[in-house]
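PROTEIN DESIGN WORKSHEET
SECTION A - STRUCTURE
LENGTH: 429
TOKENS:
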């Protein structure tokens, strides 16, 4: 197992200056900081569409979908009050929006008019974002269970009990549901019947959605590390090919990670996988780019606050927010220059930096990118639409609470929850 602790070569983003107020940053950097550069981004085809079935759109957590979302001033098409904080990020499939809230309820709401279709009660808060696959809604709860619920009528299909809370979102790939628990484990569960297929133990709470790509599960842990686990090893550990446990768990070898990369603090960001690279933020204020095969750290980017937001990656550009109140656009292809000064006081490599947009509160929400617009919530109670080219704010919409929920964008509408307990559907005016 490869273990890496790499804080060298960091790129300090704090030197990036921004325009006054709420404007995005472009070309206004201090002399000592990286220079802002416009990104070449396609506008997107409004005739293209795709459901948004899981957190950050797909199993790789890329946050990028085809089509086009609102680009001008927006207003609410409808609002749906759940009565309690909505940290959960919506999933939208076949004209229905699925979302959880902190009183333990999962809701199904019509995407066109906001009418409730059904609700399902769990035993505790549901900060988890649902994953909807083949007519089944998979969602975790802080009551310790992973639930499978019929998308049609809200009836429970099965539940899988872990040894701790399940605040993170499940990821579904090839008939297996991958989900983390505060009992320090990543679980692989059969999507059809809830049978445990395998488990991987980390050294800390697994609170966020794993990413699955190319036969590998990438998962972050409260033990400060990111792990790559081969699906073949993980699924084989929990039972045979029929999903049956042979009852001789003590004789089974524990699953080993292919590699492990240690950061400088706990990780609350979800890994994103794109073009053979894993991108993840850490509470050590840093964004990491890690080779998906080897676990080698390709580059790091240092912000001035915890990076809880999960990166969105589109056409070689990494979009990610920080608790330093900035949203950043970074080059996915950057490499550290040989011989550069790699001290934390004087990090360099402006090749990694495109632009930053600031003037927000803390960015906990993960960005969604559709067309040439970035959609993201903020602790300042606003939902924003920004230009993916230069970070200019195109519109903002005020809610009555912080927005940690990550937007889903389908058919020109942004669906997002707020700490005010409301699910919003936003569209162009």
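SECTION B - SEQUENCE
RESIDUE ASSIGNMENT:
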């Amino acid at each position: 197992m490869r273990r890496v602790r790499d804080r060298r070569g960091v790129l300090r983003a704090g030197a990036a200056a921004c325009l006054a107020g709420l404007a995005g940053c472009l070309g206004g950097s201090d002399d000592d900081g990286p220079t802002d550069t416009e990104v070449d981004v396609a506008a997107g085809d409004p005739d293209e569409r795709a459901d948004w079935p899981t957190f950050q759109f797909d199993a790789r957590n890329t946050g990028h979908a085809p089509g086009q979302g609102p680009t001008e001033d927006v207003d609410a098409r409808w609002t749906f009050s759940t009565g309690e904080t909505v940290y959960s990020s919506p999933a939208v499939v076949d004209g229905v929006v699925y979302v959880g809230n902190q009183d333990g309820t999962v809701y199904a709401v019509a995407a066109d008019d906001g009418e409730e279709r059904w609700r399902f009660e769990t035993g505790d808060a549901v900060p988890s974002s649902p994953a909807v696959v083949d007519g089944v809604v998979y969602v975790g709860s802080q009551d310790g269970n992973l639930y499978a619920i019929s998308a049609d009528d809200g009836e429970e299909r099965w539940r899988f009990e872990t040894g701790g809370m399940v605040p993170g979102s499940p990821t579904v790939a090839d008939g297996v549901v991958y989900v983390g628990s505060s009992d320090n484990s990543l679980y692989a569960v059969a999507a059809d019947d809830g049978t445990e297929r395998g488990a991987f133990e980390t050294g800390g709470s697994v609170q966020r959605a794993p990413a699955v790509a190319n036969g590998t599960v990438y998962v972050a842990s409260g033990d400060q590390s990111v792990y790559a686990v081969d699906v073949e090893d993980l699924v084989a550990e929990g039972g045979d090919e029929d999903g049956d446990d042979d009852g001789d768990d003590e004789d089974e070898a524990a699953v080993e990670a292919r590699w492990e990369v240690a950061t400088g603090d706990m990780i609350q960001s979800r890994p994103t996988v794109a073009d053979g690279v894993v991108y993840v933020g850490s509470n050590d204020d840093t964004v990491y780019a890690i080779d998906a095969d080897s676990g080698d750290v390709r580059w790091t980017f240092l912000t001035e606050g915890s990076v809880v937001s999960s990166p969105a990656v589109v056409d070689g550009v990494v979009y990610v927010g920080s608790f330093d109140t900035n949203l950043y656009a970074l080059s996915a292809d950057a490499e550290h220059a040989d011989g550069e000064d790699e001290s934390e006081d004087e990090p360099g490599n402006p090749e990694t930096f495109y632009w930053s947009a600031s003037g927000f509160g803390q960015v906990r929400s993960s960005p969604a990118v559709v067309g040439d617009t970035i959609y993201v919530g903020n602790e300042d109670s606003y939902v924003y639409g920004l230009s993916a080219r230069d970070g200019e704010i195109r519109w903002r919409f005020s809610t009555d609470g912080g927005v940690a929920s990550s937007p889903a964008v389908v058919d020109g509408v942004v669906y997002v929850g707020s700490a005010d307990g409301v699910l919003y559907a936003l569209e162009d005016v």
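SECTION C - NOTES
Residues 21 and 359 are 6 Å apart (CA to CA).
The chain has one domain: 2-428.
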